Structure formats: structure tokens, C-alpha cells
Automatic annotation (TrEMBL):
This is Hydrolase, acting on ester bonds. GO terms for molecular function: hydrolase activity, acting on ester bonds. One of its GO terms (biological process) is lipid catabolic process. Keywords: Hydrolase, Lipid degradation, Lipid metabolism, Signal. Residues 1-26 form the signal peptide. InterPro entries: GDSL, SGNH_hydro_sf. It comes from Arabidopsis lyrata subsp. lyrata.
Amino acid sequence: MNITKLTPWFLFSCLILLSDYIKVNGSISPSSEQTQKDGIFGFKPKKLFVFGDSYADTGNTPVLIAPSWRFPNGITFPGWPTGRFADGRVSTDYLAKYVGLRTPITHKWGKYGRPRLVVKRGMNFAYGGAGVFETMFKLIPNASVQIDFFEQLLRRNVYSPADLNSSVAFFSIVGNDYLTYNRRNGTEQGRPALIRRVVKQILLDVKRIKDFGVRKVLVALSPPQKCLPLLVTPKGCDTNDTSTHLHNSLLRKGLIKLNDKKINNDDKSFLMFDLYNAFVTIFKNKGVPGVSVFPDPLKACCATKRGTSCGDISLSGKKLYSLCEDPKSFFFWDNVHITDQGWRSVFSLLLPDSQF
């Protein structure tokens, strides 16, 4: 190919693709140590597929609508914003490290199915602001649409049945449906019915992913919703929130039923990722011994007022946030999201036999 005949736009596009790949996929090295044989999945996954919200998004959410692409996001790692809602790595990165893979490419780049060497590790379909239903972030694809994206790739034979049989999926939708309900002034009387609808849809979604041929599906339970800095009261956080308990109780029961041998020949196809107990344990102990110390675990490192986000700047150029000196001493990055050190602590608790 004569490079002198390439258009400036083609060259620019290649540079953008390469830059995004380096930023997103070079974020965390795969783990070379797993003391438990084949870990929680019982085999060595070769691909990771991710569906979810901002706790799992590694850069899908568009630049024009996501504060995750603005400073100070990414200051801990890699040193600049990568579209993650954090100062560094998020759940997807740590799970990829656990299974011994590099972080899978985001759907916005991987949807083209090329380059093959990149998409072969799997793909991340998660978008910040996503729920199982439409949320207040109307331009964001919900979980069902994310799974549609996955199905479109399967129809194009980007992934074979053998690929799927060697893969695991991570499903992490943990609260935007409820935050949207709050924003729309939903009543407490109507909340239990919404929770049942949300959990029912989660179960339908994860079963659909498994039915495509994915070998195992890891499903995140909800963290204590009323312990987010956005919702915490002067009295502290409510770890006995009945709504969160109902969500997790129904989801546990549903996943146990899906794992019933009468329905599914593999009785451990669906695994639970217990964010609730991990968060509560970290709050109680103010960190994880030997891993982290959080003097005030309910306080945000990048603090903002209601209605603004970390990274927002006024028309006059004034920062609309205040930034802590050391993100490693904070569990929460902003009013909703977790720091890199926070996620490291969560994974150290839930997967204690691995090095993070």
C-alpha cells in the first residue's frame, strides 16, 4: 500500500483507534497467579463479555454526554480520562485481571469485529447510566439493548460456539432504575413493585446471555443504595435498607432457581458477586486489612453539589468540584462511583485468593 495516497482523515482515524485501544485495553495487566484451581469459574476463561452500567463501563459512554471523559477522572491511572467513572480502574478491569485477561475492548470500537486479535478477548457493552429499563439518561442503551449488540456480533460470526463455551460474562446493573424512580418522584408504596420488575428483567437478561452459549455468568448484587454519598443522611448510611434487601433477596432466589439442575444441566452457570456484603464490610472496618485504609469511607474524593458531576466546569471556567489530595484514602470517587483503590478492596474481599 502506498502510504502517500492515504487520506489525512484515514490516518487520523487510525491514530484515534490506536489511542483508544492503548488507553482502554492497556489499563491493567492480567493476573499470572491464581491459587485456587481455575478460580470461581471452574475453568480458565479465554473471553470476557461485560454488560452493565457505570460501575463496569470502560469508555462506551459518548464523550459529549459523559463527565467520565473530563479531568480529574483517570488521575490515578493512567493519568488522563479514559471514559471510566473513576480515578482509575473499575470492576471490569479487576475482573479481567482475575481471569488472566486484559480488559476487553469497548463495544463502540469492537462492534466492527476488527482487529480480530483485539475482539478475541471479549467485549464490554456496559454504558454509564444504563438500567434494565430506560433510565433518566435516555440516550444510553439499557441492558436488553446491550445484549442485542452482542447478538448482532454473534449473527455475524464474530464469535463461534467454541468461543462462547470458553467465555464468561459479567452482568452489573446495580441502581440506575431506582435512581431514575427517585428522580421521577416515585412513591415508597410503588417501590416494591418496581423492584420485582427490575429483578425479573435481570433474570431474563442473564438467562438470555447464557442461552447464547456463554459458559458462566457472574451477576452483581446491589450495594447498599442508601450508603452512596448522594443519598447518605447526616445520621450515616442505612445498611438495613429494606429496598436493597428485597432486591438482593429476590435476585438470589432467582439465580438459585436458574441454577436448579432440573432447569439447567450445569448447576453453577450463574454466580453471584456480592457487592452488598463487600461494601458493608469495608464501611465497618474502614478498609481491608493489608489492602486499604479509608478514614471516612462514606465521603467522596471528588465532591460536588447536587446536580453537578466530577469534572464539571462553569461557563466562566470555575471548577464545580473539590478534589481530595489522596484518592487511595477514599472508597468513593464521587457521589456514586468507587475509586480504583475502592474496587481493589472489593475484589480483594470477594476473591481473596488472588493478588490485585
